[in-house]
Structure formats: structure tokens, C-alpha cells
Design brief:
Serine Threonine Protein Phosphatase 5, Tetratricopeptide repeat; mainly alpha; 12 helices; 69% helix; 2 domains
């Protein structure tokens, strides 16, 4: 019996999008394009409802998004994130089981969906399935050695379990793959700040912010370290471990 269904599901090489390679590709692409437009509208409305804590209504919109475009991973991810939130709030295992199923359906359609890997790893860890969470992310990094985001997620999980040295080494590897990865820079800065290396932390934060200044939490961190106005409590997280719903399409990196 397979004791790690998530590892098995993530290992699948084909997704529904491969159907586009069949004869009649032009017609299929046209239909997918129309479906994607409708799915984006449903996902956008679902995000709005989710943010208002109207979870049942959000679920309906996300489900409609998957009907409109079954190949779009974000509808499945959004369903997973919503059931995950409900399972936490209501302490209902059936909702958490649904979340796990939809996370896997998302990964079937996009084997490199970053938010989905994060959400599934969090879900497994929350249920005491630490080994499965690590196998999930370690397997991803092995399958995608050139994808820095895979290492960032594995580093986050190591940090959550207190292994900051391993997290630091993994983030350095991620930056060797992609020196401009803002998430890796921010996460490495946080680890270095926690270790008391404020100068290196500041350098990492500043580089990340220079590459992408749409990071309000990072701006607050920089202000705190520099002693400027608007500085927040420097003990707060730069990178938050958790789930969020997706509004726009995320393309697979192959």
C-alpha cells in the first residue's frame, strides 16, 4: 500500500493540459481560452467572497471556475485553500480531507504550483504528518533542481521545525540557482536577523526590496532595522507560512 499518496500524486508527469497536443489543437485551445476567461471571473469573485469570510459562497464560485476551465489549476487550489480554512475553523476532518484532495488535483494540473505545494505541506504538517510533508517538498526539489521556489518551500518547512541551519543552506542553494529570487533573499534575511547578523540580514532584505518594492512587510522590516519611521516589531515574519487563494493563472514551469 502506498503510504505517501501526496508524493505519488505529485510524481505524475502528465496533466490535463497535455490533451492540447492531440489532433484538433486549434479548436481545443480556443475552447480553453474561453473557459479561462470565465474561470478567471469566477476565481476573482470567489476571492472577494473568501476575503469577506463567505466561504460557502466562495466554494461555489471556485467550483464553477473548475467547470469553466478544468485545466486551470487555480480553481482547484482555491477550493483546497477554502476547505483548509474551514477545516481549521470548524475542526472538521472532512473539510481537511477535501482540501488535501483538491491540493492534489491542483498539482496534477500544474506540477510546480508554488502556493499549492506550500498549502499541502502546511496541511500535512498540521495533521502530524511531518515525514510526508518533507517527502513532498524534497521530491519536488529533486524533480526540479533548477527551480529555486521549490527549495524556498523546503527551507520554510525546515525553519518551521527549528532546523534553521538546514534552512539557511537550502536558501543559499536556491540563490545559487536564481540569485534574484526575492522570496529566497527575504527568507535568508529573516534567518540571519534571527541569528543576530543584522548587517547581512539588511543586505538580503535590501536586495529583495530593490528587485521588488511591492513588499510592505519587507519595507517595514527594513525601516525597523534602519531605525527609520514606520518600523514594525522586528520579531514579526517577513515570509508567512500559510495559505492564500489565487486569482490569476499560474503557468507550470517545466
Amino acid at each position: 500500500m502506498d503510504t505517501c499518496p501526496n508524493c505519488r500524486r505529485a510524481d505524475r508527469g502528465l496533466s490535463a493540459i497535455d490533451l492540447l497536443r492531440l489532433t484538433g489543437m486549434g479548436l481545443l485551445i480556443s475552447l480553453v481560452g474561453c473557459g479561462s476567461f470565465a474561470a478567471q471571473g469566477r476565481n476573482s469573485e470567489g476571492v472577494r467572497l473568501f476575503e469577506q469570510s463567505q466561504y460557502q459562497q466562495a466554494l461555489q464560485q471556485f467550483q464553477e471556475a473548475t467547470y469553466a476551465d478544468p485545466t486551470n489549476p487555480n480553481g482547484y487550489y482555491n477550493l483546497a485553500a477554502t476547505y483548509h480554512r474551514l477545516g481549521r475553523l470548524e475542526r472538521r476532518q472532512s473539510d481537511l480531507d477535501q482540501a488535501e484532495n483538491y491540493y492534489n488535483l491542483c498539482l496534477d494540473r500544474n506540477p510546480n504550483h508554488v502556493e499549492c505545494y506550500r498549502g499541502l505541506a502546511v496541511l500535512l504538517a498540521e495533521q502530524g504528518r511531518k515525514d510526508e510533508a518533507f517527502r513532498l517538498l524534497e521530491g519536488w526539489t529533486q524533480r526540479q533542481p533548477g527551480l529555486a521556489d521549490a527549495r524556498v518551500e523546503l527551507a520554510r518547512l525546515n525553519e518551521e521545525y527549528g532546523n534553521r541551519q538546514a534552512a539557511k543552506e537550502i536558501l543559499i542553494e536556491a540563490l545559487a540557482v536564481d540569485p534574484n529570487n526575492t522570496r529566497a533573499l527575504s527568507a535568508l534575511g529573516k534567518i540571519r536577523e534571527d541569528a543576530g547578523d543584522a548587517a547581512q540580514a539588511l543586505a538580503n532584505y535590501q536586495r529583495s526590496f530593490n528587485l521588488d518594492n511591492r513588499q510592505p512587510q519587507l519595507a517595514a522590516r527594513l525601516a525597523a532595522l534602519q531605525g527609520g519611521p514606520g518600523g514594525a516589531d522586528p520579531s514579526g515574519p517577513v515570509v508567512e507560512l500559510g495559505t492564500r487563494v489565487a486569482e490569476r493563472s499560474t503557468e507550470a514551469t517545466r
